[in-house]
Amino acid sequence: MDKEYQFANLSSEDLQQVHNLEKQLSDDKGEEVILIAYHDQNENKKQ
Predict the structure, then answer these.
(1) What is the pLDDT of residues 24-43, one digit of tens each?
(2) Where would I find the beta strands (DSSP E) of the chain?
(3) Distances in Å between the alpha carbon of 24 and those of 8, 11, 15, 33, 35?
(4) By C-alpha distance, which of 3, 30, 34, 39 is closest to 18?
(5) From its phi and psi, is residue 39 left (phi > 0), alpha (psi between -120 and 50) or beta?
(6) Which of 15, 18, 37, 43 has the highest count of CB atoms within 10 angstroms of its CB?
């Protein structure tokens, strides 16, 4: 089964949380961490 993903539609508050987590993980790991938010297009088609 092929998965189809699109970028998740996040609010500005959600984006701020993602950026905060990116910074925390980057600081902890000592290297840049970038998080990408997707949603599964197939989940919407099942309904």
Answers:
(1) 999 999 999 999 999 887 76
(2) 5-7, 38-40
(3) 21, 20, 14, 9, 12
(4) 34
(5) beta
(6) 18
